[in-house]
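Shipment paperwork, digital attachment
Item: protein structure file
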Amino acid sequence: MDVGLVLLDTGRRVLAINPAAARMLGNRAGGPPDGLVGASLHDLHPPSHRAKVELLLAAANDPAAPASACSMMVALPDRVLVLKASALTPGDGAPVDGALVNGVPVTALVLMETTRLTNAAPPPTAVPVEPLVKLPVEKGQGLVLLDPADAVYLQADGHYTKVHTAEGSFLCTLPLSELEARLDPRGFVRTHRGYIVNLRHARAVERRDGRAVFIMAAPGAPRVPVSRARAEALKKRLAL
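Attachment content:
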């Protein structure tokens, strides 16, 4: 089976990630998702989830903790991830905060997909991408399913995404890279490494300090940046 591996230092920052974990966490090409390596694990989760993550990591460093305390299941719209945290020990087996990698104590997060257990993992191009009919976002203590057409633009927020609508902003636990792959490309377009725009809500394009920005049809007329690398493709798309 395909096994993802993420290494953390004692400050809960991501030291390294293997290609399998990168794919599971949203990058279909197998490279590290944008902004993940070097990021704090707490910053990649909404405040309501951080206490659970801290309990998981604390149990991983407690030799007496049961296996269940070091594990959790993460339900995503198209699959379920099983996550296991484990503190690595140096060669002498001493129970310190973890084995040293370049002098830094390390904790390992192991990830597996329960819906794709096969003897050989398919290549990234063979992984089917299911279109999103609804956008799952958090509201209070529950989950709300938004119509994608209501999203004005989407903004990367660590490993999660903020979905901006005319009624306000909501947190989606899917990364921006996965949303780009699963939203209708006829309406949703990546303008920047941190932004996706719903062209149906785009009111105008203007230049600021030599760079283009979309002005969106929403309260406050929010402006969404366009990176230089994507500007030419967007010009052709909009016949500018």
